[in-house]
Specification:
Number of helices: 5
Strand order of the largest sheet: 2-1-3-4-5
Structural class: alpha/beta
Distance between the termini: 36 Å
Order of helices and strands: EHEHEHEHEH
């Protein structure tokens, strides 16, 4: 008998920890696709969505209607948004000692080298250009979920 199975066939392996992910995205279609990608992987991710950088900073600092917001374990960040763009959010997150340890994955349509370089210069943990193909998009987000949700050890 497999060591991970009990005599009744139930797995004794611990369930993966639930992680809170903050998605900062102004495109509703992309929000739907990210949500679908996480749902395909199971209930181990709680997705929180804000639509621009100002809301993201309020969420992260638990201000302006976000007093009960959880501290996210991961931030998925679009670059091109109204009011405050992703570069500004990234700079604020990485400059704030209370937030700097939160991994930030840039998930954007831009493949411009200047955006990639500026994101890494601002200490993004990864940069993903959104695939145009739906299956490739779902796969890319699924890999992010698997890596940050099951492979790495995240700070508390």
């Amino acid at each position: 008998m497999d060591d991970s199975m009990t005599s009744r066939g139930a797995s004794t392996e611990p369930a993966p920890p639930v992680i809170d992910v903050l998605l900062v995205e102004d495109d509703e279609g992309d929000v739907i696709m990210v949500r679908e990608a996480f749902e395909q992987r199971g209930p181990a991710t709680r997705l929180h969505v804000v639509n621009d950088g100002i809301e993201a900073v309020a969420f992260l600092r638990r201000a302006e209607g976000y007093a009960d917001a959880p501290r996210p374990d991961l931030i998925l960040l679009d670059l091109n948004m109204p009011r405050m763009d992703g570069r500004e959010v990234l700079a604020e997150v990485k400059a704030d000692p209370a937030l700097t340890a939160i991994p930030v994955v840039v998930l954007t349509t831009s493949a411009a080298q200047e955006d990639i370089l500026s994101s890494y210069s601002l200490y993004a943990n990864a940069y993903i250009t959104k695939p145009a193909d739906l299956d490739e998009f779902l796969d890319a987000v699924g890999k992010v979920d698997e890596f940050f949700g099951a492979t790495v050890t995240l700070p508390n």
